Amino acid sequence: MNFLLFLHNGKYPTLLQRFLSLSQESTRKRNIEYTFMTRELLWHGFSELLMFSLPLINYQSVKHKINRLINSKSKHEDKKWVDKIPLMSARIVCSICHDKPVLPHHIKCSHVFCFYCISSMRMVDEQFECPECDHFEKKIIPVILN
């Protein structure tokens, strides 16, 4: 009961202080600094901005553009991978997830992709190019199994 009265009035935090009518009053004015509060509000606002904006960013497209800037040598000059039909073997891995391909497909280059990987990349970025050789092809073709 004393706790509820304390929350309502703000006086007498303990039962003993209530019986003795002892109230706590400050003898000098407190100097309140808001630097901590300001910092917390800024970080909270910044984190909310990131939580809102990060899902809107197309990471694959950004990653592809950064890789293009870093690798200034154009891989397009090296056409040895293009128009080679890939054949499945035990050593083949998906060029996107680097696991054994599930439902292997290709885009008219010799690199193999999982159907899910290449389809999801195409949904995210219609201009998706092979991450190994930068070859672009709209058509996704199943790989012939040996």
From TrEMBL:
<dbReference type="InterPro" id="IPR018957">
    <property type="entry name" value="Znf_C3HC4_RING-type"/>
</dbReference>
<keyword id="KW-0813">Transport</keyword>
<keyword id="KW-0576">Peroxisome</keyword>
<dbReference type="GO" id="GO:0008270">
    <property type="term" value="F:zinc ion binding"/>
</dbReference>
<comment type="similarity">
    <text>Belongs to the pex2/pex10/pex12 family.</text>
</comment>
<dbReference type="InterPro" id="IPR001841">
    <property type="entry name" value="Znf_RING"/>
</dbReference>
<dbReference type="InterPro" id="IPR017907">
    <property type="entry name" value="Znf_RING_CS"/>
</dbReference>
<keyword id="KW-0812">Transmembrane</keyword>
<keyword id="KW-0808">Transferase</keyword>
<feature type="domain" description="RING-type">
    <location>
        <begin position="94"/>
        <end position="134"/>
    </location>
</feature>
<dbReference type="GO" id="GO:0005778">
    <property type="term" value="C:peroxisomal membrane"/>
</dbReference>
<keyword id="KW-1133">Transmembrane helix</keyword>
<dbReference type="GO" id="GO:0061630">
    <property type="term" value="F:ubiquitin protein ligase activity"/>
</dbReference>
<keyword id="KW-0479">Metal-binding</keyword>
<dbReference type="Pfam" id="PF04757">
    <property type="entry name" value="Pex2_Pex12"/>
</dbReference>
<keyword id="KW-0862">Zinc</keyword>
<protein>
    <recommendedName>
        <fullName>RING-type E3 ubiquitin transferase (cysteine targeting)</fullName>
        <ecNumber>2.3.2.36</ecNumber>
    </recommendedName>
</protein>
<keyword id="KW-0653">Protein transport</keyword>
<keyword id="KW-0833">Ubl conjugation pathway</keyword>
<dbReference type="GO" id="GO:0016558">
    <property type="term" value="P:protein import into peroxisome matrix"/>
</dbReference>
<keyword id="KW-0863">Zinc-finger</keyword>
<dbReference type="Pfam" id="PF00097">
    <property type="entry name" value="zf-C3HC4"/>
</dbReference>
<dbReference type="InterPro" id="IPR025654">
    <property type="entry name" value="PEX2/10"/>
</dbReference>
<comment type="pathway">
    <text>Protein modification; protein ubiquitination.</text>
</comment>
<dbReference type="InterPro" id="IPR006845">
    <property type="entry name" value="Pex_N"/>
</dbReference>
<dbReference type="InterPro" id="IPR013083">
    <property type="entry name" value="Znf_RING/FYVE/PHD"/>
</dbReference>
<keyword id="KW-0472">Membrane</keyword>
